[in-house]
Amino acid sequence: MEDKKHSIILEGRDLLSTSGVKDIYSFDESKIVLETSLGILTVTGNELHINKLNIDDGNLQIRGQINSCAYSEDRNIKERGQGVLSRIFK
User: Fold this and answer.
1) Which of 36, 47, 56, 76 is deepest in the core (most CB within 10 A)?
2) In what order do the strands lie in the sheet with 21-27?
3) What does the pLDDT look like over 43-56, one tens digit per residue?
4) Measured distance CA(15)–CA(78) in Å, rounded
């Protein structure tokens, strides 16, 4: 997927829509770590669920109680192993 613009829309702290998603590294009910076209994004909260995922256009929708969204340049995440999507679609 080529680099695309990245955006985040947070609606009422319970619905987060984001574009420019390249890969998902880990997810559970309290934390989702993903790679976007602008870096690594970590979303934390409670009862988090990936509601919609479109791999072709890089759109992702997360539902649950969202407490924070934080970017990092931690490239070690990539070195720890392949992302979830690349493992699923081998």
Assistant:
1) 36
2) 7-11, 15-19, 59-72, 39-54, 31-36, 21-27
3) 999 999 999 999 88
4) 27
Q: What share of the chain is helix, strand, coil (3-state, %, to 5)?
A: 10, 60, 30
pTM tops 0.85? no
Span between the terminal Cα atoms of the chain, in Å: 16
83 within a domain of the structure (yes/no): no
The number of domains in the chain is: 1
Whether residue 65 is contained in a domain is answered as yes
Give the number of other Cβ atoms within 10 Å of residue 47's Cβ.
10
* 19, 59 Cβ separation under 8 angstroms: yes
Distance CA 87, CA 90 (A): 6
Domain-embedded: residue 42: yes
